[in-house]
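Q&A log
Question type: sequence-to-structure
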Amino acid sequence: MTTTEAHQQTRIETRNLVQAAAQACEDKKGEDTRILELDPIDSGLSDFFLVTSASNDRQAIAIADEIEHRLKKDFGVYPNSVEGRRQGDWILLDYVDFVVHVFRAERRAFYDIERLRKSARPLTPAEFDSELKSTLAAKTLAARGKAGTKGKPAVAKSKTAKTASVRKRAPTAKPGATSRKKAEKVTTVRARSTRKTKV
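Response status: OK
Response body:
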């Protein structure tokens, strides 16, 4: 696997994690959930920010707990660090390649992370999901293309081998031809024997 392929694979895995975290937000009734795809030049630390709002502290804690539980259970991934869980007005889950921000609605309006990260590309979970599916479909097609290319010479070789073996075999006579040849031989032998008796 090349460096580019390894990087692409890591990015797909990160996208799967972000998608699972976004789904956890939706399941716990997080409001206005957004995924910010950060500009690689602008962000030296993460690829994505997942931002969602809660109506109160308890809901914010419930959302953060659900994200943590789901990623641990389904992917075996733990956050590198968690901040703000005790207060519940802004909980940050740092998964290195992406960071989850669970805000109380008024805190989100105050800090306005989306405005601070102007170069980031905002996506809804549905848009993010469709992009992920198209990326995976393209990767699957590319993999199938590679497998098809590798398999074709083997098929060609086996066809050539079959043709060669057919050529090596002696040509088989038609069913009626054998009996005609025998009949001709018998006639020839009889004709010779009649000649001898006349002499």
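Response note: The longest strand covers residues 31-37.
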